[in-house]
């Protein structure tokens, strides 16, 4: 046998190593490519709810109220799936439905009664609803009792800013739409007697207000302005609000805070230009210096993410599920800032909702989308575009507000999805949410008492939850305040 010399041995060894390395690189490279090219998150509709006894299911695709139902009169019955109506009050509504139990154990509901002044002046006067923020005694949910109308300037039309702080019993709102600048901020005490809120202060501290946020400790109220302002107001002494931070050049919407008040989850509208919105998504901000009342505080941006087919980010509600941190984010309408959004609803994106993992605030990631069949482009270009008010960019088949009954391991979420009414979703598996119920009461014909013609559903409000009674409360702009009870087993998701 002839033995190879040392150089030949080394050369053979190198060739073998190169061959092995090539195989490993191919395997690793293939794995890396498959990882980086992982399929995009599904934007298909979530599974449709299975409606049990006593339901009045939809007659068409998920979320749709077809023209045929208006013509036949079917729409008058409404659409119920694993829900039933317990109570009703009034004939109008707005953007927020809030629940609060005061120091004496009395439970109240608060809701703004109009989208914008003077939209519902005539109908609210004729119905007896009155103006501003409506206060209801909810001792008997089957018969909500109106006990007050808050008509101080800030409460006449608080737009999307109305919030109640559970810890301190403060109800706050800002009169600050684009036509009512500079933004009057009103603070009410509801802890003493929620049925009769007491005005503590009215100030100009809600600069150009539109949406808002409240630190859980109730000491800082944040205001997002329609013209690019972001303001923090110190309410340590609610009788003397004090601006402790303000900046410009940002277009923020809903502002929600972590439990310690140090991290803010911002629905970031992004940049608004002639071509419409760009950069819309979620922004996470470190506001610990504001929370700690540092001199000349800074708000440090930790991350900003976007997603395909975003419309107008509305709000991102934080929650924890199985030890992980998430936000439940919802986009409203279509892109109302562009000519395409206003003129071609078929091709304008409907953002709907999504769940975003925020375990690492510097690297958030979307884990699932929550959409109905009516939100899909192929449906928007079909017969449904001719359904009553489907053509109207500020109504239509889109989303507006979502909310959960708790931040700690919620099993269910509720979303006001405008023409599609109140939709209920099982979110126990955050990667695979599914619809479990709905409640929709469209107005069957034009309400002639309204300054703006009212037809169809106009579900815009953040819902509130009564866990003890297995109920969810919300308002429809066209028909008022509803108490809805969950049935057929889905009420178990409240507990």
TrEMBL record:
InterPro entries from the UniProt entry: Quino_amine_DH_bsu, WD40/YVTN_repeat-like_dom_sf
Region (Disordered): 43-68
Protein name: LVIVD repeat-containing protein
Source organism (scientific name): Nocardioides marmoriginsengisoli
